[in-house]
Amino acid sequence: KQWYQRRVRGNAGVESVVVDDVHGLVWGKLIINAAINPLTALFRVRNGLLLKSLHMKETMKKVVDEAIAVAIAKNIKPLFTTSGSVYKGSPSEIALEHVFQVCRNTEGNINSMLMDVMRKEQTEIDVINGIIVREGEKLAVPVQTNKTLVELVKATQEMYNSQSQLVSSRLFDIV
Known about the structure:
7 helices, 2 strands
């Protein structure tokens, strides 16, 4: 299905994007958030720092690959609106480049999931990576990396009340 974008300005001067495939746009945003937010929350880092680690980039690639496989199984073509960027390659490669571009564009950001963890509040993990897991399992698409991230973020949330029992890094100064 062909899709198009045109930019319009509302009365408030807010730039809007009109597309004929809202599911593709939603899945594009979902994939970006699924690849970035849980990792920043688990490691307590800003978005841009994810690109400094080969292991983080590999984990983001696995999240993206699984999410793209689920989208394809649902007959959805994820759309990305990262301005000024045109990428070529497989759907997973294109999605991953958009994820990396968002990390670069928002390098200093503390995203909402990281903020939730810092405030010891419930995160939106169930409506980001959790959706990928539920849809993947319904469609028999492997989603182990996303499932692991859901479990780790939920475990982090369970530990909120146990923070005083955490081992201090100062303990290792004694040894």
